[in-house]
Amino acid sequence: MNQESKRLSLTLLFVSVALLGLILSSCGGSTSANGSSTGSNVQALMSARDLTEADVTAALKTYTPTGAKDDYMIFASGGHGGNVIVIGVPSMRIHKYIAVFGPEPWQGYGYGDQTSGLLASGNLEGEDLGWGDVHHPALSETAGDYDGEYLFVNDKANARIAVIDLKDFATKQIVQSGLIESDHGGCFVTPNTEYIIEGSQYPAPLNGEYAPISEYKTKYRGAVIFWKFDREKGRIDKSSSFAIELPPYMQDLADAGKLATDGWMFLNSFNTEMAIGGNLDGEPPLESGASQNDMDYMSVINWRKAAQVAADPANTTMNSGLPLISIETAVANDLLFEVPEPKSPHGCDVTPDGKEIVVAGKLDTHATVYNWAKMKALIDAKDFTGNDTYGIPILDFQKSIRGQVEIGLGPLHTQFDGDGNAYTSVFIETVVAKWSLKDLKVIEKLPVHYNIGHLMAAEGDTVSPDGKYVVAMNKWALDRFQDVGPLLPQNFQLVDISGENMQLLYDMPLPLGEPHYAQMIKSDKLHPERSYPVGTDPLMDRIDPFAVANGDERIERKADGVHVYMTAIRSHFKPDTISVKKGDTVHLHLTNVETAHDATHGFCIGSYNINVSLEPGEHSNMTFVADRAGVFPMYCTEFCSALHLEMAGYFLVEG
Ligand code: CUK
Ligand code: CUA
Fold it and tell me: Which atom of ligand 2 lies at the shortest distance from residue 601's CA?
C-alpha cells in the first residue's frame, strides 16, 4: 500500500468510525451539540431506506466518492462474450471491457485491418469464430507475484489463448495450437511467466483428426501445452513451446507450482472412467458414467525438466507444429505422475508458500490438502502403488496428503489470504467457507447468493496474498435483482475478509457472462500509458508504415487501388471528401494526430461496415472494395468536442 492510499484508507476508517459513532449516539437519543443534525439525517435516511447498521458499514466500506480511485482492479473473464471485464474494488464499478475473441464495436475491435486480422488469426480452418468461452484470466508474474504487465486468457470452446498487454489494455495475440479441441486448464502461468499453461478438457484425436468414438481409449487424447512467453516482445513464441500428451481423461483445472513446488505443475482430471455416453443407445449418460469411481487422478508434471526433454528433437514428434512428448517418453523421463483425488475433483490450488495443493471434489464434501514434501519423497523413492492404463506411475493417496477438511456440499475452488486462511467456494451449499490451513478446520461459513462457482481474493494466486477482499462469483441470482426476463445477470458479491467475521459488502449484477474466474491486483501495480506515439499501430507496437503526419494528407491512385492518407484532429478529418469509382479498392490510412489524454475519435462509413476507434496517437488501416455507388456520410462516432457533429464528411462512390 503506498503512502497516499494508506492515508486515504485511514481517513476513510476514521470517517466511518466517526459517522457510526454519530449514528449510534443518535440512536441512543444523546444529543451532541454539532453532531445531532448529521446524525439524525443519517438516521432518517436509514429508516427511510430500511437500512441496518451493518448496511451502513458496508456502504461506507464501498462508497467511492467522485474522483477517488479503487485500491484493486479485477480482471474477470467475460465468458461467452469472449472478452475481459475490468472492475474496481471496493466500488465494484466496471471500468472496461477488453475485447479479445469477438468483435467489440466501441473499441473498433474487429473492424479495421489490424484487429480484424488479429481476430482472423484465431479462426479455425477457415471458420469465422465470433465468440470465445473465456474461463481463466491469468496475470503475468515475476517471482510468483503479479507484476501488472500482461494478462492471458483462454477460450475453452476453441482451445485458444490470447495475450493482452496491460500497457494499453489491448489484445495483442491469439494462438490456437490445432493440437487439441478444447481447453480448460488455462491460463495458468509459471512463477516468472516463462510459460503459459493450456491444458485440454475434452479428449479428442490430436491434431484435429478423426477416429470413431469406439476407439476412445486408444485414439483420443488430452494434452497440456506450454506456450513460451517472450516477455521482451510481449508475445507467445510458438517455436519455443512444447506439449505433453495425456490420457483421455477429462483434464480440468491446473495450477503452476511456486516456491517449494517451483518447476512443477498440477492438473486434475475427471472421467478417469473414460465414459463416452451413448444414452440414445441405452448406455448411461456421460455424467453418470463419469462419476462411477471414488477416485480420479491429479497429474503431477515436472515442467522444467519437460522443457529440457522437449529441447532434444529425439524426444518428441512434431504435432501441429509443436514438439509433443508422448506419455511413454514422459514416464521414461520421470516427468509425469498421477495421484488419486476424491470423486470428480474441480479446483486445484497451490498454497501461497507452494508447499501444498488444495483440491476440492464436486461430489465430495472435503477439500484435500496434498503435501508436496510427502509427494516428492514418494517420487524420489519411486514408491508407487502401480500404474494407470497408460503406464503412468500412481502415488499413494494417503501417503500424499496432509489431511482433509470437511467443507460442505459441492466445494469447488480455493483462495488464500496472507494469514494462513483458505476460502473455498461451496456450490451446492452456496457459501464461502473460511478454514484454517494450519489445523484444517472450518472457521466460518458465509451464505452467498447463489451457487458460487469461483471466488477470488486480493492478489489471491500470488506468493503473498493481501487478504482484505474476496469476491464470490455466483452463478444464480434468483431474487437478488429486479427481474430482467428469463436470463438473469450473474451476481458478484464483494466480501470483506479483514475482520473477525466475513462481511458481505456489495452485490454487483454482471450483465455479461458467463464469467468463470478472475484475478484481483493492487491498482498501483498497473501503469498503463495515456496515449500512443502519433502514428502507432497498437497491435504491432510500432509506428505504422502508412502513418499520416499533420500536413501530409493526400489521396493517391495506385495499381492496387485508391490510397487515402487521412488525419483526425478536433474537429475534422482531412480529407473530408473522398471520391472514388465503383469497383475501386479503397485503402484508408487514418491517424489520430492528437496526443491529449482521452482525445479519442471514432470513424465510420455507414453501410460499408467501416468503424474504427482511434485513441490519441493511434493509426488504423481500412481496406475494402467500393462495390456500391452512392453518397455515404462519414463521421466521428465519439463525442469529442463542441463541434463533434461537424466532424464529418462524404465518401462518394460514382457508379
Ligand atoms: S471453472 Cu467455471 S466455476 Cu471453468 Cu474454473 Cu470452476
Ligand atoms: Cu472526433 Cu467526435
Answer: 1
Q: Give a yes or no: residue 531 inside a domain.
A: no
pLDDT > 60? residue 204: yes
Q: Supply the CATH number for residue 260's domain.
A: 2.130.10.10
Q: Give yes or no: residues 517 and 578 share one domain.
A: no
269-278, 380-389, 393-402: range with lowest mean pLDDT: 269-278
374 and 248 fall within a common domain: yes
Q: Say what the pTM is.
A: 0.94
pLDDT digits (tens, 9 = 90+) for 212-226: 999 999 999 999 999
Domain-embedded: residue 530: no
- For residue 37, what pLDDT band results from cuts at 50, 70 and 90? low
CA-to-CA separations, 511 to 107, 343, 453, in angstroms, rounded? 19, 33, 16
The ligand whose atoms approach the alpha carbon of 201 most closely is 1
pLDDT, residue 34, reads 46
DSSP readout, 495-537? EE-SSSS-EEEEEEEE-S-----EEEEEGGG----SSPPTTEE
Task: Please give the tally of structural domains in the chain.
Answer: 3
C-alpha 632 – ligand 2 centre gap (Å): 18
- Ligand 1 in contact with 184 (CB < 6 A)? yes
Q: pLDDT-based confidence at 30, cuts 50/70/90? A: very low
C-alpha closest to that of 321 among 202, 487, 117, 179? 179
36-48 helix and 3-27 helix, angle to the nearest 10 degrees:
80
Same domain, 507 and 551: no
Would you call the peptide bond into 348 cis, given omega within 30 degrees of 0 as the criterion? no
Task: Give pLDDT, residue 141.
Answer: 98
CA of 2 to the centre of ligand 2 (A): 37
* Structural domain containing residue 403: 72-277+284-525
Cα dihedral value 16, 20, 26, 28, nearest 10: -160
Is 589 near ligand 1, meaning CB less than 6 Å away? no
Considering the domain architecture, whether residues 25 and 102 belong to the same structural domain is answered as no
Q: CATH number of the domain at 624, please.
A: 2.60.40.420
Minimum mean pLDDT range among 124-138, 450-464, 582-596: 124-138
Whether 164 and 53 map to the same domain: the answer is: no
Q: How far apart are CA 181 and CA 192, in angstroms?
A: 28
Which atom in ligand 1 lies closest to the alpha carbon of residue 253? 5
Rounded to the nearest whole angstrom, what is the distance from the C-alpha of residue 185 to the centroid of ligand 1? 10
Q: Ligand 2 atom closest to Cα of 639?
A: 2
Q: Is residue 67 part of a domain?
A: no
Q: In what order do the strands lie in the sheet with 366-371?
A: 345-350, 356-361, 366-371, 401-406
Tens digit of pLDDT for each residue in 220-256? 999 999 999 999 999 999 999 999 999 999 999 999 9
Q: What is the atom index within ligand 1 of the atom nearest the CA of 516?
A: 2
How far is ligand 2, taken at its centre, from the CA of residue 526, in Å? 28
Shared domain check, 411 and 451: yes
The domain boundary, picked from 525, 556, 579, lies at 525
Same domain, 379 and 429: yes
With respect to residue 607, please indicate whether it lies within any of the assigned structural domains: yes
Q: How far apart are CA 23 and CA 20, in angstroms?
A: 5
Same domain, yes or no: 354 and 471: yes
Answer whether 427 contacts ligand 1 (Cβ < 6 A).
no
